[in-house]
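Moderator note: this is an archived Q&A kept for reference. The question asked for a predicted structure of one protein chain; the sequence and the answer are reproduced below.
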Amino acid sequence: MVNKLALGQLIIDLYRTPSVAISLCDNDWVQIIKVLRHQQLLARYCYIFKLVDVFDKLTPYAKRHLINAEILASKQNNQVIHEARELTRVALGQSKRFVFLKGAGYSLCNDQASIGRTYNDIDLLVEKEAIQPIERRLNLNCWMSEKITEYDKRYYRKWAHEIPPLRNNARGTILDLHHNLVPVVSNRSPDIKVFFDEIATTETGEQVLSAPARTLHSIIHLFFNEDVHNGFRDLTDIDLLIKQHGSEAYWRKLNELAVQSGFDKELWLCKFTLKALLDTPLPDSECQSLGKPTSQGLSWLGKIYAKALMPNHPATNTKKQLIALNLVFLRGHFGKMPMYVLIYHSVHKLFTGLAKLMFGESVFEKTTNKLPPAR
């Protein structure tokens, strides 16, 4: 049995050098498939193996699992495209900007990052003033809010960058409706006009971000948030976007957008991690910038992310990776909330969690807890 560190590195090696897969036996594949399924990457690896003519040389056991994942991913991709077109029809006339983000955007643009990708939800970006009319229109078309506490509802409406998730009662699809890319309470939410100026339209009429803006949003989502449990998958998204679109003009615009939106440090962290884990081909100018971090702290943070974003599973998690994951978790929370909000929010969640454990899930259905006053 492969040890944890070696298994995590083997999965990275399979992405970087797919021909390594030819020498693997079924005992190896049992562990690899378990990790790839957990990371939602089985179908993507199937695509990579086929791309370099390795797939036919794999064991029948491996091929069976990879093909099954590919079929499911293809079905989800088609469903996301259908849902995007239906959402565009439902919200027609309610907002000038109706922008599909992340996975849905990849699928609508036919990005390589959409191939073999599985989906948890659909992300949409609209103008803040259009949130209510669009939400009302969606409610009339079977899109309803998930059941959450009154506290969480107020948190979403007052402090977050999105409304509570909506679920389609007929199809079960989850929709996240955004008016910014990061929580407004964080003091790091960008001027969203920077991204609205980067809107492109697909051949079938849906709005998406330009390739540099799609990439930057993926970087922000991965290197600003606290939850990176699917971080290795998200890192491969960015790797594929760069390999597909990485022209000189693309890099110029990507760096420009990062500075304009205030996420140039996250861009540096991403380039450092891509180079360290996936050896993503970067232009010489971008490689040179990696040797010039703006602070020693940023250099150390890059090493932490390079450890945290390795394949994440109990079979691969070393002590160092678990420490790195916890440090990233803390950084994400401190970045998303001012200290007074973070303390209040953490105490509230701890108290309600303990109360539910002791008295049942329904104990706070009519809670009247209030958020701290805005500052």
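Archived answer notes: The mean pLDDT is 89.
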